[in-house]
Design a protein that fits this description.
Elements: H1 2-19, H2 28-58, H3 71-105, H4 119-127, H5 133-145, H6 147-161, H7 166-176, H8 188-215
Helix pairs in contact: 1-2, 1-8, 2-3, 2-8, 3-4, 3-6, 3-8, 5-8, 6-8
Length: 219
């Protein structure tokens, strides 16, 4: 899917470069879209690298607490967590870039509804344009298909960005009532499953968008 998505992005760029000949000058919109498409391809590949590294470091983690680990095992776990967090942040940043690209490509003017919009806001805006119904229906299906793992990843992203969440700290305090003597590690296998599903959701969405946009004449 990653390879097919990169091919779809390249096909889109080839199409707009072919249809908007530079002989008489090209509208700034299409130059920007070409650059944004290339940027999305880079973002997707960087996301894949983060997921891969997280999987590699997480593959041999078997202990349940930090106290059980050797120094080398702890280093491996911390590296896994670094790439895991990097990956789920990149999932949503890539989606938001995708939303921005969609908004500009199809002149949806989502900013009129919400100045700082997300990919999901753009999907709702796309739903209002009947001529793009085939694309919107495919993207909505992908959204529903991966809804549960994406919700878990979004919660993790929000906690990571807005760290030291007061309610979370209160919840932990109420369950402990004392200092922890052991520190449980993350559920690595479950986290990696969600991460892979999130990566697939982003890849599938981009593949759908660029495949549709490479053949559509409705821009």
């Amino acid at each position: 899917m990653l390879l097919e998505t990169n091919i779809a992005i390249d096909a889109f760029c080839k199409r707009i470069r072919r249809e908007h000949d530079c002989t008489n000058g090209v509208s700034a919109k299409w130059i920007r879209l070409d650059l944004w498409a290339i940027g999305l391809r880079s973002a997707l590949n960087e996301l894949e690298q983060s997921v891969y590294c997280s999987q590699q470091y997480g593959a041999n983690i078997t202990k349940l607490t930090e106290e059980e680990m050797t120094s080398d095992e702890l280093t491996t776990y911390y590296r896994h967590m670094y790439y895991y967090k990097n990956a789920f942040i990149r999932i949503f940043s890539t989606l938001d870039k995708t939303g921005y690209f969609l908004d500009r490509l199809y002149d949806l003017e989502t900013a009129r509804i919400k100045p700082k919009f997300s990919y999901y806001t753009v999907l709702r805006q796309l739903h209002k344009s009947p001529i793009y119904a085939p694309l919107e229906q495919r993207l909505f299906h992908i959204k529903v298909l991966y809804q549960k793992p994406m919700e878990r990843l979004r919660n993790r992203r929000n906690l990571e960005i807005h760290s030291l969440n007061a309610e979370l700290i209160d919840d932990i305090w109420q369950t402990r009532q004392c200092f922890a003597t052991q520190h449980m590690i993350e559920p690595v296998r479950n986290n990696l499953d969600d991460l892979q599903l999130g990566m697939t959701m982003v890849c599938d969405s981009l593949h759908t968008i660029f495949t549709y946009s490479s053949i559509s004449k409705k821009q």
